[in-house]
Amino acid sequence: MENKRSRAPDVFVQVLVGPRGILKMGQIWLPLSLILAAGGRVDSPPRLGAALWLLYAVLSKGLSAILVNDLTDREIDKRAGKVRWITSLVPPTGIMIPVALQLTGFLALLAAGGDIPVLAAFMVSVVIGILYSVPPVRFKERGIWGVFAYPLSAAILHVLVPWALFRPAPSLLFLLLTVVIVEKAVQILFHQVVDFDSDHEGKVRSFASAAGFDKAGRALRIVLAAALAADAALLFFIVREMKASPPFAWLAGLACLLGMAASGLYVKIIAKRLRTSTALTDRLPWPYLGLSYTLFNALPPLLFVAQARREPEMWVLAALSALSLIGVSANAIAYDPRR
């Protein structure tokens, strides 16, 4: 019983409030808010019900992918001093948890009214996520393939699955896929650069480890430029689409300006004076941090509020996305790449 009690706080922190739990799937909020705003085919069950089932499916797949990665990286994480609660369980139990999550995620999409395209997209994301970590494929140790596989799996889950469920205009699909792919590419390259020394020492054949620190750094800068351009294009799209509601269009633009200003102020002044700089603020430029944070975290609650004027049930999604915003903000301030 003592082991179970001592494990419970780790499970709570890593799954519910930590950066590697449900908050890591926070990028679903922006695509979902824009897709619902554009209208869709789902009338029954109600859109809120379909959205909630979808959110569970996204969270279950995302958490299962993290747990599969933890199980396969057991020895690597142990050498790096990282503690993962799933590895403290006996292997059969540890394996059954991600399997159960994936199965219930599939069933949730059925409950949401998902048809064959929805379910097929979800399964493709699941398979790529498994192959990213599990031998013999293990994309994460196959150089550039890992840099492609991780963003592709995430983009299918966060964009293609909800788009296939609600079916708005195809132009929105292309824009959101582009934005999420480059955002996730930034994330994976950033972590590979930060983990370069430990990966190189542990002979982990990530892209950064295989290409070298300098080439990985150049690749990260190129992807960062692409992400900034894609984020700016998406912001322009959002403001343009909200022109029918001028107050919300102005609020969206103002939120991004304030986010950029706050990012610059924190990175350039506050973090340096208080000595709270992290690998995140040291290696990623503040314009990108501010724009990405605002787009994916601060704008979704505002977009849901705009929809709630016509569809009151959207207040539920506005509240949930606001909670995600609070959690992501707290984790960003206390960011630690070793967790």
Q: What does this 3D model show about the protein?
A:
It is a single chain. The chain is mainly α and 339 residues long. It is 77% helix and 0% strand. The chain has one domain: Orthogonal Bundle (Farnesyl Diphosphate Synthase). Mean pLDDT is 84; it is low at 1-5.
Record keyword descriptors for this entry:
339 residues, mainly alpha, Farnesyl Diphosphate Synthase, 15 helices, 77% helix, globular, disordered N terminus
Précis, in short:
The chain has 339 residues and is mainly α.
Helical run tally: 15
The CATH topology turns out to be: Farnesyl Diphosphate Synthase
C-alpha end-to-end distance: 26 Å
Helix % is: over 70%
Give the strand tally: 0
Give start-end ranges of low-pLDDT stretches: 1-5
Structural class by sheet pairing and helices:
mainly alpha
Biggest sheet overview: none
What's the helix-strand series? HHHHHHHHHHHHHHH
Shape assignment: globular
Q: Would you identify the CATH architecture?
A: Orthogonal Bundle
Please describe the topology of this protein:
Elements: H1 2-17, H2 29-37, H3 47-72, H4 74-79, H5 91-111, H6 116-133, H7 144-166, H8 170-194, H9 196-201, H10 207-211, H11 213-241, H12 246-274, H13 279-283, H14 286-308, H15 314-333
Helix pairs in contact: 2-7, 2-14, 3-5, 3-6, 3-7, 5-6, 6-7, 7-8, 8-11, 11-12, 11-14, 12-14, 14-15
